[in-house]
Every structure is written in C-alpha cells, then in structure tokens.
Design a protein that fits this description.
Shape: globular
Number of domains: 2
Strand content: 5-15%
Helix content: 40-55%
Number of helices: 16
CATH topology of the largest domain: Nitrilase/N-carbamoyl-D-aminoacid amidohydrolase
Oligomer: single chain
CATH class of the largest domain: Alpha Beta
Order of helices and strands: HHHHHHHHHHHEHEHEEEHEEEHEEEEH
CATH superfamily of the largest domain: Carbon-nitrogen hydrolase
Strand order of the largest sheet: 5-4-3-2-1-12
Structural class: alpha/beta
C-alpha cells in the first residue's frame, strides 16, 4: 500500500492528470443506475495521494503553489462530470440539424466549468494540507463548500453532488433530513478518503475509527428511522400518474398533437382499477399546445374527468401584456377541475440556461444561438414559489423539472405543503443514466422534507414515494401506462432550530478546526 501511494504521489504531468480524470470518472459508478457506492473509497483515496504530491515550488507565490492542487481537482471533476453527464448531448440530437454543432460544448464544456468547483475544493484543501488526519478534514471541508457553492453560483447546478453516492437506498437517505445534502457530501468525502491514511500511517487509527463511526451512524440512523416509522400511512386521496412516453422529436409535430392529447385522455379515463383516482397527474408540458388558449381542449378534459376528479398537468402558459407587447410564456403546472376550469397554477421559477432561456440574449442571438427547448419562445421565470391548493383540502409544493435538484429551494409561500408534485420531461435524454439520476435527486427531496413525492415524467421515471423516500409504486423508463396510488400522509416533523443548514455549517466548522489544528497545532507542539 505504501509503495502504491508513493508511486501515485510522484506522478507528474500527463500521467497525473489522466489518473485524476480516471479516478473522477470511476466515481460515477456510485450514482444511479449503478449505485456501487464502494467505488468512492477507491476514487477519493487516489485523489488524496495525488494531492499529497501536488505541491508547488516553495519560492513561488501563493496562487502558483496551489496550482498543481487545483488542476488535480479540476481533472478529477472533469472526469466525474463527463462520465456522469455525457447524456446531456442527447438533447442536442433531437434537432441535430440545428444543434449538433454544440454537442462538444454540452458533453465537455459544462463539465469543464463544473470541474472548477472541484479544483477550488482541492486548492482550498491543499492550502490547509498536513500529514495524517488533518488533510482528510481539509479535503472534506473543500468538497463540502464546493458542493454548497455549486448550488447557487451561476444560477446553480448541484447535479450529482458527491453525497448522492452515499445514498443509494432510502435507509441511507435519512441523514439528509438532519444535516442536508451538503452536510452528507462533506462527511461522505471524509469517510471515502479515510483509507488513504493506511498507506501514510500518521493519524490512521483515529481517522479510520472516526470514519467507521460516521459510516455506522449513517447506516444505523437510517434503518432506525425506517423501523420506527413503519409502512407509510395511506391517505384518503388517490393519484393516477400518467406516463405517455412521447418521442421528443414528435411532441411538437402538428400532425401528432391530437394523437398525443387523446393518448393522455385515454390513459386518464381507463377504468380498469377499482378505486377511483381523486387526482390525475400528467408530466411537464404534457399538452403539446397552448392549453390556456384552447377552450375546446379544456372542455375535452372536463368531459374526461368524473365529478370530484382533478387534473394536475404541466403545460405552457401564455400571458399577453398588451397589444404592443410580446406575449410571455411560462413553464407551468395547471390544476383543472371536472368542469374544465383552470382553478390554480404555478410557474417554474428556476429556468434552465440555454434550455429554457438564453443568458445575455441580445449578444448570443446576434451570433446565431438560441434556446434548445421546443417551445413557442423563451420562457419567463415565475415571480415566486408558493404552495398550490387542490380539492380535498390539500396543498402541494410544485417542482417543475430540474427544480427538484435544489435542496435550498423547497421553501414556499402559502399554507404548508402536504406533498411534492414534480413534473418533468426526461425524454430529451433517452435511455441513459440521466433519468435515473434525476429521479434519485427528487427522491432525496422527499426524504429531506418528510413530504410524499408524486412524480410524473413523460418517459419515466414516474413514481410515488412516501416522506422517507420509499417507492410506493412506479413506472420504468419508456413504459406507456399509469399507476394508481393512495397518496401517503406526510411525516409531521417537530419544530427544531437545528435546521440542516445549521448542521452543515457546524460540520464545516469542525472540519476547519481539524484541518487547522493538524497543520499548525502539531507544528507548534514540535517546536
């Protein structure tokens, strides 16, 4: 082990960068659909040893001394994000004639930007680097802060945070309800990096003991929570989740729109199950035309619904400001009653850059760039997030598409939510790991909040989970069909000033103390 660690520490140049890239790419196996979380012990152990040898010249300035560490982390991140998000390029192939030229930017450009956060993490860690246990604290500190920053810098994109690798099953998601995704990410890096101590020996015993205690606590707490809660209590409301699996290339085809709409209607009216659904849920932008301007379609929906039934659907909503003003379009959730009336709505707040709107629009349109999404025009962001009331005296938290990946955006105005509604269209990404990763992140939001998750995805994965993240029923990728599920009751959480963000910063503070003490405290003691 010592010889292996020594050989990795002494690598330089292209060999160092290739190994860092490979270690990051290997870490992707911890994510859905693979869920082989043990691989992270290998990836982060190699990363620690690479950072052991990533020291700049002593006479160089502060930034240049940290440059080798930054690039080590950047290559690790580049491998992780290319390996975990290559499927984004599939969206550009839906309209290949127009967007295929941008394929390298999606497959390599976005990962290159996201890798900067991991370069920051390793540079910060290296600035506090020391022998033994302290460097593991420093690395966990750096990655914890990097994942937190990734959730809001440049509009935020915390996709595939390291913590998800440590939450492959509901029992291992329960820690997120206490310390949050970013707290889990920081401690996960500590645990997965701990084997690196074996080769260098200094601090190995306390480091491995702490890592083992954290791992046992993470697993034990989850199973304890699930054993106490028992099976999810079924509520009086029943939801039918419809999954039409529409080919994205045909969705906005004029010749296909009637067929798609009638498929949604037929699946919603199917009487084969015994218990009548009280709510029917369609995916994001399920209706392939402007529903708000089509009274005939609304009347058709009213005819399909029985008295007392409610449709919740994703749709494009148009808002006209005036005769001389361009119309605004919103990616929305509409609630429609059995008379065909829209009784409530919510607009997507967190839009996808380049997918739903164009940053620096005037400049980029001037050089020929446009948005990728098939829509009447660029979307406008909703003004605020609020809970949406539905018949039956319940309220839901609306999360449209990738809004479900942001743990810090679960607060909403209005009455307390009884469940989460997540509508999405992952048909853009085909049969790739993307839809599995997206579902996992939505599943963790349920475990964090204690709210059941009702998820309708155009081509999957559609599912209902309880407030612990346990799947009650679901539809696999590319299946055409529906499920009828009694909506579980939400988990009533006790009021607690110790919110996940407080615990996250407490973890960061402890890791900082450990790193600083190891770097400076031991030196003073030796002197």
């Amino acid at each position: 082990m010592e010889r292996l660690a020594g050989g990795i520490m002494l690598l330089w140049g292209i060999k160092r960068w290739l190994l860092a890239f490979a270690a990051g790419a290997l870490a992707v196996l911890s994510l859905p659909p693979f869920d082989f979380f043990a691989i992270l012990f290998v990836s982060f152990t190699v990363l620690v040893w690479l950072l052991d040898g990533a020291s700049g010249r002593a006479e160089a300035g502060f930034v240049r001394r940290l440059s080798p560490a930054f690039w080590t982390g950047w290559w690790f991140g580049f491998g992780y994000f290319v390996g975990g998000m290559w499927w984004l390029g599939n969206a550009l192939l839906i309209e290949a004639r127009e967007f295929a030229w941008a394929l390298p930017f999606a497959v390599f450009g976005l990962p290159a930007v996201l890798a900067v956060f991991y370069g920051f993490a390793t540079a910060l860690a290296r600035s506090l680097w020391s022998d033994g246990l302290g460097r593991i604290c420093a690395l966990a500190l750096g990655f914890g802060l990097a994942e937190w920053l990734r959730s809001f810098v440049l509009t935020g994109f915390p996709w595939n945070a390291i913590g998800y690798g440590g939450m492959p099953v509901p029992a291992l998601m329960q820690s997120a309800a206490v310390i949050g995704l970013f707290g889990v990410s920081a401690l996960a890096v500590f645990v997965f990096s701990a084997p690196a101590l074996i080769a260098t020996r200094r601090g190995a015993v306390p480091g491995l003991i702490i890592a083992l205690v954290l791992l046992i606590a993470h697993i034990g707490f989850g199973y304890w929570v699930l054993s106490r809660s028992g099976p999810a209590a079924e509520g009086e409301l029943v939801v039918r989740i419809v999954q039409p699996s529409i080919d994205q290339s045909k969705k906005w085809d004029d010749a296909e729109r009637t067929r798609i709409f009638e498929l949604l209607i037929d699946l919603s009216r199917d009487p084969r199950t015994g218990r009548l659904p009280t709510h029917i849920l369609w995916p994001e932008t399920a209706v392939p035309f402007l529903l708000t301007g089509n009274p005939g379609a609304l009347a058709r929906i009213g005819e399909a619904l029985r008295e007392g039934q409610t449709l919740i659907t994703g749709a494009v909503r148009q808002e006209t400001a005036g005769a001389d003003q361009p119309a605004r379009y919103y990616n929305s959730i509409l609630v429609i009653d059995h008379t065909g009336q829209i009784i409530a709505a919510a607009d997507k707040q967190h839009l996808v850059p380049f997918g739903e709107y164009l940053p620096m629009r005037s400049f980029l349109e001037g050089i020929g760039l446009g948005i990728v999404a098939n829509a009447p025009g660029a979307f406008t962001a909703g003004s605020r997030r609020r809970t949406v009331p539905v018949p039956g005296g319940r309220n839901f938290l609306p999360l449209i598409c990738y809004e479900a990946i942001f743990p810090d955006e679960l607060a909403a105005d209005g009455p307390a939510a009884d469940f989460i509604v997540n509508v999405t269209n992952d048909a853009w990404y085909g049969a790739t790991p993307g839809p599995y990763q997206h579902f996992r992140q939505a599943q963790v939001r349920a475990a964090e909040t204690g709210l059941p998750l009702l998820r309708a995805a155009n081509n999957g994965i559609s599912a209902v989970t309880d407030g612990r993240g346990r799947i009650m029923d679901g539809l696999a990728l590319d299946v055409v069909g529906y499920i009828d599920v009694a909506i579980p009751e939400k988990i009533q959480k006790r009021g607690n000033i110790w919110s996940p963000i407080v615990f996250f910063w407490a973890i960061i503070a402890l890791l900082l103390v450990g790193a600083v003490y190891s770097r400076y405290g031991f030196v003073q003691r030796r002197n």
